[in-house]
Amino acid sequence: MPKVLFAVSEAHPLIKTGGLADFAGSLPVALQELRHDVRLVLPAYRPVLAQARAWREVARLELPGHQAARILEGALPGTRVTCWLVHAPEWFDRPGGPYADAGGHDWPDNAARYALFARAVAQLALDEAGLNWRAGVVHCSDWQTGLVPALLSREAERPATLFTIHNLAYQGLFPAAQFPALNLPAALWGHDGLEFHGQLSFIKGGLIYADRINTVSPTYAGEITTPALGYGLEGLLRHRAAHLSGILNGVDYRVWDPARDPLIIRNYSPAGLAHKAANKAWLQQHCALPAQEHIPLIGMVGRLVEQKGIDLLLAALPQLMKLPLQLVLLGSGARHFEDALQDWARRYPEQLSVRIGYNEELAHRIEAGADMFLMPSRFEPCGLNQLYSLRYGTVPIVRRTGGLADTVVDAGADNLKRDRATGIVFSEESGAALLDAVRRALNLFSGGATWHALMLAGMRQDYSWQASARRYSALYQQAMAERR
After folding, report:
1. Kind plus residue range of the DSSP H or E element containing 360
2. pLDDT at residue 406 in the model
3. pTM for the full model?
4. What fold is seen in the domain 270-459?
């Protein structure tokens, strides 16, 4: 098994802004169970340092164009996975989030910060830190690590590289004038390098120079080669199509399993599905909704942005509020979406509850208490909430895109007959299509035995990280075989 250096900009439970952190907090653990020697490396942000006080310094790196960085070693909390932190206080030990300040504005020196991180990762991979550990594969994710494959490509004896795209919409674009200040090799500039329409593109470092590229679902791997979701990079991705594939994200069932979830009101399983009702009753009471067991309760948790189809939901709300249903929504995002949803909640307080922000406990309780879970995403590289919903017997209503298309089987007549259906799927990007999908779900909900069978079919699905880890292990072998 190759030694794997897993380079990311965030990892749960140390620091999290989105699904990347869940990916980085789970896949290395599953890889270790397959007997891979895995080392996780991420920047030593202030919140991370607060959890890593007992970690020890194991190396110091001299990074060209930057101050020296210390390497701290410990274990990813709750696991046996060795974790390295790149401790460069001037660049990472600051208030706010990993990528933006407390006001939500991107740090103006992000290019320099993640160039420093990439140099540190490259040195660790090549065993230039004196740790007597050399990577066979370096697994990078998203633009923050895009320079790593580019830097390693210039090394004669280098590890193989894999670059995972979690969301191509985020590309790490900076003014071209910043390129010289990063002290990068001049040969990396140009249209066949890091230049993108006159800008510096970090993500191109991964797309051009990595031995293998993958996304977090097979369908999304195809979608990003089209103008609709390629964001100007579809030509490059088509050029590298032979090296591009998709592997679905997994679910950490130690955390997301209604049979043992400590955050929900009452645990339940397929054999004791009636206990799910206690979670619904609590959620209705908590959200000041009428406690009506036979009224369908729809949950939503996520970012309130156009990508997630919030505009489609708003277009459908006038008609949705005429139907016998309740809707609980938890999330934050664009201010105009937050304001519009709160306005609707004030108008329909017995049907709609909107909580702005994020609360991990409430997210679990929505999954457990809702009858259905709505994800009308315009695009969704993988999606996790539909996978959580399947396990919790909370029937997903999703748009046919990305990982949603790969994981939810529509409750059409034939699929229901074959006991294959696991949710409601619609295709058109419109409020009318969303409304029709919800109406279909309501009709099935009133069907009693049919709905129960749909819930059980979802709960039988296995999207554990173990299956995904085996696919990544095979991809590492491919990357090593194709090393340039």
Report:
1. helix 360-369
2. 97
3. 0.92
4. Rossmann fold (3.40.50)
| Three-state secondary-structure class, residue 223 | helix
Q: How far apart are CA 206 and CA 213, in angstroms?
A: 8
Confidence of residue 64 (pLDDT cuts 50, 70, 90): confident
Q: Which residue has the tokens 């994200």?
A: 249
Return all residues near 456 (Cβ < 8 A) that are at least 6 apart.
270, 273, 393
In whole angstroms, give the CA distance from residue 59 to residue 52: 16
Report d(CA 463, CA 460) in Å as an integer: 10
Task: Find out whether 351 and 327 touch, Cβ atoms under 8 Å.
Answer: yes
Q: What is the mean pLDDT of residues 260-278?
A: 97
Q: Identify the CATH homologous superfamily for domain 3-250+465-481.
A: Glycogen Phosphorylase B; (3.40.50.2000)
Residue from 431, 423, 393 nearest 407 by CA? 423
pLDDT at 68: 86
* Same fold? 3-250+465-481, 270-459: yes
Q: What digits encode the pLDDT tens for the residues 352-375?
A: 999 999 898 999 999 999 999 999
**Does residue 246 have a pLDDT over 70?**
yes
- The residue written with tokens 């709960």 in the block is 459
Q: For 178-188, how does the pLDDT look when each residue is reduced to its tens digit (9 = 90+)?
A: 999 999 999 99
Tokens standing for 94? 């600051």
Q: What are phi and psi of 301, to 5 degrees?
A: -140, 125
pLDDT digits (tens, 9 = 90+) for 126-185: 999 999 999 999 999 999 999 999 999 999 999 999 999 999 999 999 999 999 999 999
Mean pLDDT of 315-323: 98
DSSP characters for 416-465? Answer: HHTT---BEEE-SSSHHHHHHHHHHHHHHHTTTHHHHHHHHHHHT---BH
**Domain spans, the chain:** 3-250+465-481, 270-459
Give the C-alpha separation, 129 to 57, whole Å: 12
Quote the pLDDT of residue 66: 65
Q: Where are the beta strands (DSSP E) in 283-394?
A: 297-301, 326-331, 352-356, 372-375
State the DSSP H helix or E strand holding residue 222, giving kind and residue range, or none if neither: helix 218-223
Q: At what angle do helices 310-320 and 335-347 cross, to 10 degrees?
A: 10
SS3 (DSSP) at 304: strand
Q: Concatenated DSSP letters for 131-189?
A: SS---SEEEEESGGGTHHHHHHTT-SS--EEEEEES-TT---EEEGGGTGGGT--GGG-
Are 115 and 182 contacting, i.e. CB atoms less than 8 angstroms apart? yes
Q: How far apart are CA 222 and CA 224, in angstroms?
A: 6
Secondary structure element (H or E) that encloses residue 25, with its range: helix 19-33
Q: The tokens 């490259």 sit on which residue?
A: 122
